[in-house]
Structure formats: structure tokens, C-alpha cells
Design a protein that fits this description.
This protein has about 270 residues and is of the alpha/beta class. The chain folds into two domains: about 5-160, Rossmann fold (3-Layer(aba) Sandwich), CATH 3.40.50.720; about 175-265, Orthogonal Bundle (ProC C-terminal domain-like fold). The chain contains twelve helices and eight strands. The chain has an eight-stranded mixed β-sheet. Helix 7 (about 165-170) packs across helix 12 and helix 8 (about 175-190) packs across helix 9. Bound molecules: NADP nicotinamide-adenine-dinucleotide phosphate (NAP).
């Protein structure tokens, strides 16, 4: 059985540990390393997984090494684990803005790397995770990495050149969508619906719409056509959104976020 190591068990690291255990990965197959002593104690107690005192010790005893420390800690961790890496080990990095070539230049030798970009919804097992890998990672190893992330949500293979786009659409995406949801709730309030009721109605609109799209296998435009009748209320509202270039604004926001992700990864 291949062993999985996790360096940095913060927000994301914890979600990954939870997902792995939920999927039935044995406790004995997971090892973690965490600098915060309090945090490490809590992880040992809650999940019953083994702690490696040093990242190097973790790498020596595992095959898949997940790096989930903050990007600013990447150099320290990579420098520390470099001597323990060999051709059989696979680094899986979820650190935003750290590219495979950044990693190779710190490690200083050819190593297998998978770059993964999750979003916050992995915490509830319904996230989206974009993954890219360098050429030396074998097909069956990519499959294993996909299996590791599968309990966290949908795993999408994407070229590394599209990782900044993945960050903008997938990782920042929930924030754009939440702004829209907040606007709907405020609109409900403006037209006289009490705040809590406006929240329940707006949230249910979203939930039901997504469920219907999924269950009926429908394209968003087709579903929108179904509720947009001639001379009706929906088209009156849509006309305003079109007039104010609603779609154009969203496209521009996601393009800008993607450019920013690129700037931050330089
Ligand atoms: N949160 C998101 O929505 C999201 C989305 C996509 C990608 N990511 C990426 O996921 C990574 C983790 O994010 P997070 O929100 O989980 O961060 P976090 O909560 O800060 O977790 C990182 C943990 O690693 C510890 N750590 C730092 N250096 C270490 C070392 N040398 N050895 C072992 N542990 C070490 C940190 O301790 P200290 O706090 O003491 O440094 C902290 O407890 C980041 O690189 C981020 O870019 C996050």
C-alpha cells in the first residue's frame, strides 16, 4: 500500500486528511508534519494519524507527498525535503502561485510533480480541483493522485499553462458567485421581503437551479429560455442586466483575477 504524507495540516491539509479517512484510506497509510505544536497535537488526537517530527522523515516514509503549507513557506520546506526525494516519489503541491519549475529549481533534481488547485468547497467534499503534472509522472500515478482528491470534489485535469485561469474561475469563483447571491438578497429586501426570508428564497433559487441543471442535463441557456416568456417579468429583468453588460463584467472580473494569479506566481 502506497503511503501518503501531508506537510502542513492547516485549513486545506485538514480537509484532505478528513477526505482520505472518509474514503477508507487506512490511518496507518497517512503521515503528517506540522510546525505548530498545538495543531499537531490536535491532528494526532482527532484523526489518530502518525506524525513525522521533520518533513524529511515524512518524505523518507511516504510515496505521495502533499505540500499544503503557505506559498511563502515553500522554499523552506522544499529545501528541507530535497535530499530525501527520489525518482519513486511524487510531490503534490496545492500551494497557489508555485509552479512546477519553481519547485524543480529549488529541489535541484528531476522529480515528479503534480500541481493541484482546489477551491474552498473541498471542505464540504464538493469542491473543484484542477490538476496538472510534469512529463515524468506516469499515467497510473496521475490516476492515484486523482483518487486522492476525488472525495474532495470534481477533479479536472488541466494543463499547467491554464492554472492561473483555474485559480480565477475555480478558486476565486465562489467569491464572485457569493457577491451575486448577496445582491439578490439585498434586492429582495429592497422590494419589501424581510432579510431572512430573502436569504432563504435566494439560496433556494440557486440550489434548485443547480439541481435542475444537473438532473435534466440541461444547458443554462435552455433552462433560462424556459422561464423567460414573451413580455414577461423575467425578460424585463434580463433586459436591465444586458443593458448594464452583466456578462461582460463577469468575464472581465475573471480575466482580471487570472492576470493577477499570473502576476503573483512570477
Ligand atoms: N484556503 C484555500 O481556499 C486555498 C485554495 C487553493 C489553494 N490553497 C493553498 O493551500 C495551501 C494551504 O492553505 P491553508 O489555507 O490550509 O493554510 P494554513 O491554514 O496556513 O495551513 C498551513 C499550515 O502549515 C504549517 N506549516 C508552515 N510551515 C511548515 C513546515 N515547514 N512544516 C510543516 N508545517 C508547516 C502552518 O503553520 P504556520 O501557520 O505556523 O506557518 C499551517 O499550520 C496554501 O499554499 C494555499 O495557497 C488554499
Amino acid at each position: 500500500m502506497k503511503k501518503i504524507g501531508i506537510i502542513g495540516v492547516g485549513n486545506m491539509g485538514e480537509s484532505i486528511v478528513k477526505a482520505l479517512l472518509k474514503k477508507g484510506v487506512k490511518k496507518e497509510s497517512i503521515i503528517f508534519s506540522e510546525v505548530k505544536k498545538e495543531r499537531a497535537r490536535a491532528v494526532r488526537k482527532i484523526f489518530g494519524i502518525k506524525e513525522a517530527k521533520k518533513p524529511g522523515e515524512l518524505v523518507s516514509n511516504t510515496d505521495y507527498i502533499i505540500l499544503s503549507v503557505k506559498p511563502q513557506d515553500s522554499k523552506t520546506v522544499l529545501t528541507e525535503i530535497a535530499p530525501f526525494l527520489d525518482a519513486g516519489k511524487i510531490i503534490i503541491t496545492i500551494m497557489a502561485g508555485i509552479t512546477t519549475s519553481n519547485i524543480l529549481s529549488i529541489v535541484g533534481k528531476p522529480v515528479k510533480i503534480v500541481k493541484a488547485m482546489p477551491n474552498i468547497c473541498v471542505k464540504v467534499g464538493d469542491g473543484v480541483i484542477g490538476i496538472a503534472h510534469n512529463k515524468i509522472v506516469k499515467k497510473e500515478e496521475v490516476k492515484k493522485v486523482k483518487d486522492i482528491f476525488e472525495p474532495l470534489g470534481q477533479v479536472i485535469e488541466i494543463g499547467e499553462e491554464l492554472m492561473d485561469a483555474m485559480t480565477a474561475l475555480g478558486a476565486s469563483g465562489p467569491a464572485f458567485f457569493l457577491l451575486f447571491l448577496e445582491a439578490m438578497i439585498d434586492a429582495g429586501l429592497k422590494i419589501g421581503i424581510p432579510r431572512e426570508k430573502a436569504r432563504v428564497i435566494s439560496t433556494q433559487v440557486v440550489k434548485g437551479t443547480l439541481k435542475m441543471l444537473a438532473e435534466e442535463g440541461m444547458h443554462p441557456t435552455v433552462m433560462r429560455d424556459m422561464i423567460t416568456s414573451p413580455g414577461g417579468t423575467t425578460i424585463s429583468g434580463i433586459a436591465v442586466l444586458e443593458e448594464k453588460a452583466f456578462k461582460g463584467i463577469i468575464i472581465e472580473a475573471i480575466e482580471r483575477a487570472s492576470r493577477r494569479a499570473k502576476e503573483l506566481s512570477l
